[in-house]
Amino acid sequence: xxxxxxxxxxxxxxxxxxxxxxxxxxxxxxxxxxxxxxxxxxxxxxxxxxxxxxxxxxxxxxxxxxxxxxxxxxxxxxxxxxxxxxxxxxxxxxxxxxxxxxxxxxxxxxxxxxxxxxxxxxxxxxxxxxxxxxxxxxxxxxxxxxxxxxxxxxxxxxxxxxxxxxxxxxxxxxxxxxxxxxxxxxxxxxxxxxxxxxxxxxxxxxxxxxxx
Length: 212
Prior knowledge:
With 212 residues, this protein is of the alpha+beta class.
């Protein structure tokens, strides 16, 4: 047969057979071929296997495998659907931003998110580091209790009502922050929700700002 053309002809033949043939098909046990009925035609595309991208700081983010090999975490976000690419980017940013370990630094998120943001935002984040703002009491307690935090069930969506252009998209990302500590009682899970602005750059989509 010739692909979709033959499948369409078989479907027309089946419809022309009338109610009698349809009744016979319904009466047949599940899995039993029915004489005169056309074969089921399924048009499917193979799903790429998920890949795990590791950043320089050891944070791993599982995303759909790209159509072509990539060389950096950000370049792996190359889905053919622009919306899917932006949503994957937002998830990757959220995971990199909120994942933490007592063995790292309070501002380690600056390095973890660097490959997901625009050059301008990366420079703004580095300026925060240069300003020398202390980690605060909350981080010191996090370290003293030897805690680690991970983001579970991360997902993102582009609201259909959000304003957008060909080069700018507003995306919402959410997840659950789960923290475990070696001493004391583990903190309650924290619901995460952010609104981000993503822009198309020469290097692909990048996060330009956190709006909320």
